[in-house]
């Protein structure tokens, strides 16, 4: 009887243990070997794809650099366009600003400003002034599209470096071209950037302008001269490509086969390319590593087959595998956010147990650190809230700006001061969002550039019909890498008015005692002079019997004596003595007003009626008719319909108003010759607890030094002999001392003068 046929597996199992182990090892190694071979070929393919992908990534990185340069250049131009020097065409200031920018930014070749015709009117480089740029591409593009333009690639005249020019249009109020603001950017920054990249030595970088000329070629080589056309087959392939980004294989000018990656850059989606970036890599060098990987893979496959014979240690590997599996599961849970995940450390080899213990210790540290970070975040949020509350509670207006002049913070006081909602201000340029700041951007730039605080005192702010004075303090932000400026505004209007009133009151008090003493000392001899002049006139009067009797006893004809005196103008001189004496007495009487309170009885009177009566007196005043022709001055009345009653001595208030009308008439002398109609405006207003009257003219005004002294006794701007300098001083004492009111003089050179009088409705108790 024949034995049953044995199967292959049966025959194999009947072999010796060594054979079985070898067979098992070889069978176990076969899949690994095949996998290694497949992985090696796949790795080579991935390496080739990676070389291509890296080339494309480098191309996009350089494109990102160019886009960053574009944003920086255009951002710098936008910042310069917002400065006062450029916006107001202050060419000397613009030249200084451009020179400072060139000194601070070595990557710039020049900064310039043209007029609408393309002629350079301001430049950081003086030799560039006056040049005609109307035929340059960047000027034509900016002028035609009203959008930023980029010029053709050029070489610097003095540096020999490649340059790219950026320009933005400047428009007038009608949207028409007023000029172009531009800057020239050195392209050798690309060489420094590329040199800093860890690129393979076989990679070459080339930048081409729209016509295919080389702007940058790295590494430098005489085979690739700057300013020359690119290799025609390569340029034609890039130029005629349907897409802006392409990769292809083509020979280099040296004949070496290379892989190319190109990207065309456009300023706007609908604009033609202004620059093309091309990166190339020699195939034999680029894929050398991939070929090496393949050879290593084949070698590894052979080695793996040999090592498969050592599978006797499968048990140990299994133990290690169990420990690694536990560790992998714990790591995955920890990565998913489970901070309590830990690896099992009760089995496996000692090394695996130690690894698990180290992992668990690391997880403990991460959990503790996470809790600490959460606590720190809460504390930071609380601190941020406290700082916000402090800023919102401050009585000062606080405005935060970044280095580009955009508003980053506006506290409640600032929003109330300017009447601006925060959501429409935050993120906008300060000069546009808060018009009051437009005239102070130079101060902000100085504070930021000099890294120090800067104080501007008593800056005028117009709010409706009210003029306020603001102190502006600029604090530069230079800590923790942040750049910007914090502006603090404080309303000092009332403080300045009080200070001015205190100074004026001290002047008046110091003069009051002097005026009283001088008046009493002058009155005595003045009375004697007036009395003696009157006695002489009486004793020369021919109608008096005593004079006739004395002349008869002396044998004189009194009429002849009188005729002689008149012929020799003695009587006229006596009249002049009396007139001068009376004028001096009037001055002395005015001086006495400084040393005593008025005892005039106060009554309720209408400011409108007192203003009209004073105007009537001014119109009939002979001196005003003779010297200033008051009748030809235009009078503008702005009265309310209802009476504005105040407690006052009407004659004193009328005296004050008449003084103001006389001063206004004097100031308006000669205004008609300047082509203006001489005008005095009288405005009466009713305030809650007082009445207000304003007298304004459109005369030449006065400077600040003169305005500060107008209420000083004996100070006058009139020629000698035409004024005593006491009119406004007396007016000041009538309003302030006698009536408890206020009087304020506002004036600017060339903008007329305005006097504001405020009188209380009730007599102070």
From TrEMBL:
<dbReference type="InterPro" id="IPR003661">
    <property type="entry name" value="HisK_dim/P_dom"/>
</dbReference>
<keyword id="KW-1133">Transmembrane helix</keyword>
<dbReference type="InterPro" id="IPR033479">
    <property type="entry name" value="dCache_1"/>
</dbReference>
<dbReference type="Pfam" id="PF00672">
    <property type="entry name" value="HAMP"/>
</dbReference>
<dbReference type="Pfam" id="PF08448">
    <property type="entry name" value="PAS_4"/>
</dbReference>
<dbReference type="InterPro" id="IPR004358">
    <property type="entry name" value="Sig_transdc_His_kin-like_C"/>
</dbReference>
<dbReference type="GO" id="GO:0005524">
    <property type="term" value="F:ATP binding"/>
</dbReference>
<dbReference type="InterPro" id="IPR035965">
    <property type="entry name" value="PAS-like_dom_sf"/>
</dbReference>
<feature type="domain" description="Histidine kinase">
    <location>
        <begin position="517"/>
        <end position="763"/>
    </location>
</feature>
<feature type="domain" description="HAMP">
    <location>
        <begin position="318"/>
        <end position="371"/>
    </location>
</feature>
<dbReference type="InterPro" id="IPR036097">
    <property type="entry name" value="HisK_dim/P_sf"/>
</dbReference>
<dbReference type="InterPro" id="IPR036890">
    <property type="entry name" value="HATPase_C_sf"/>
</dbReference>
<dbReference type="InterPro" id="IPR003660">
    <property type="entry name" value="HAMP_dom"/>
</dbReference>
<dbReference type="Pfam" id="PF02743">
    <property type="entry name" value="dCache_1"/>
</dbReference>
<keyword id="KW-0902">Two-component regulatory system</keyword>
<dbReference type="InterPro" id="IPR013656">
    <property type="entry name" value="PAS_4"/>
</dbReference>
<keyword id="KW-0547">Nucleotide-binding</keyword>
<keyword id="KW-0418">Kinase</keyword>
<dbReference type="InterPro" id="IPR000014">
    <property type="entry name" value="PAS"/>
</dbReference>
<dbReference type="GO" id="GO:0000155">
    <property type="term" value="F:phosphorelay sensor kinase activity"/>
</dbReference>
<dbReference type="Pfam" id="PF02518">
    <property type="entry name" value="HATPase_c"/>
</dbReference>
<keyword id="KW-0597">Phosphoprotein</keyword>
<dbReference type="InterPro" id="IPR029151">
    <property type="entry name" value="Sensor-like_sf"/>
</dbReference>
<keyword id="KW-0808">Transferase</keyword>
<keyword id="KW-0812">Transmembrane</keyword>
<feature type="domain" description="PAS">
    <location>
        <begin position="383"/>
        <end position="428"/>
    </location>
</feature>
<keyword id="KW-0472">Membrane</keyword>
<keyword id="KW-0067">ATP-binding</keyword>
<protein>
    <recommendedName>
        <fullName>histidine kinase</fullName>
        <ecNumber>2.7.13.3</ecNumber>
    </recommendedName>
</protein>
<dbReference type="InterPro" id="IPR005467">
    <property type="entry name" value="His_kinase_dom"/>
</dbReference>
<dbReference type="GO" id="GO:0005886">
    <property type="term" value="C:plasma membrane"/>
</dbReference>
<dbReference type="InterPro" id="IPR003594">
    <property type="entry name" value="HATPase_dom"/>
</dbReference>
<keyword id="KW-1003">Cell membrane</keyword>
